[in-house]
Amino acid sequence: LEGYKMYVMTGREGSSICRDNVFDKKIYTRRVLDMHQKLRLAAALNMMKNDFDIYHFCFAPEKFSSACIKNIMPLRRSRLIVQSIPYIPDRALNDPKDIIFGDHITVFSKMTKNILRLAGFKNVDLVYPVVDFSLYKPQDKKDESIAILYAGYLPNSKVLNDMYTIIESVLSRVKNAKFLLAVRTKNMKEALMKRMMLNRIKDKFMGRACFITSSYDMTDAIRGCDVLIYPFLSGFERKIDIPFVIAEAMACAKPVLVSDIEPLNEPFIGRGGKLTRARRAEDFAQEVISLCSDKNTLSQAGSANMQAALEMFDYSKNLNIIKTIYEKCDNG
Description:
It is globular, with a radius of gyration of 21 Å. The chain has helices spanning 35-48, 63-72, 110-118, 157-173, 188-204, 215-224, 244-251, 281-292, 295-312, 315-330, and strands at 6-11, 18-19, 22-28, 54-58, 80-85, 104-107, 124-126, 146-153, 177-184, 209-211, 227-230, 256-259, 274-276. The chain is α/β, with parallel strands linked by helices. The strands form three sheets. Strands 10-9-8-11-12-13 form a six-stranded parallel beta sheet, with helices on both faces. A four-stranded parallel beta sheet has the order 4-5-6-7, with helices on both faces. A three-stranded mixed beta sheet has the order 1-3-2.
């Protein structure tokens, strides 16, 4: 973005961002955006509310955070506030007004765009998650095992048990399968449930499942897996309309088995891929088993996904939409 100086609010730890026209503002003291970090953000925004021409916010929309920003940020026309919304919480689907504060809104899916348009918001643009295609691209297969990747939250015991059912069923039936699990936790309780599930798997399937704990390992897991699964059964939480891991796996020409519900199914409708209407863990597991046993479907789904990724998640195409929004500020 030539002609712009960009400041990114980051954590205090780690190296500084300072290259070309990008700089950092070290605000946060922890990686988790808890109430303490939100208060730090509010204080920083109050101090910087007249420093910039454009303010671009990109975090999960919550009523409390949105109300704070509405009260802090200036309402002067010379300032443009852009709000990027990764998803609309279920509780706000019927009336999203309380979580909206931006002059211009960008969303991750057609479903969210339609919801906001029906609610009366006009300045809404669809900007898909972007993928670095130099990093995420097809790789040659190194062994005969089938590596199945799951990335997401396991927020309660029902979801945990459903996920264990899927893993146990697949590993029992597909002898060369193994699972790569990237499970995020928000607190000690979830971390304990995660550890308990891994111990159960280890006891029964030694060496055939592991947890991924770093972003570097996550990149290798996406590039090295054979199948990505993304079940959305009862109790599963939605944190983003189209998860980045799905876009990145598609770019690597990986087959993706995903629940056929909006907006998760958006990248696959009319483009290939593999959707399932399974609503029980046992049925989803059977879909995984069937997919793993069909090499032709694996190959075809992977190729279709890569083409869809190139169409939807291209960096320059989506960045141009953001640039057009920013230019509206320059033009008054």
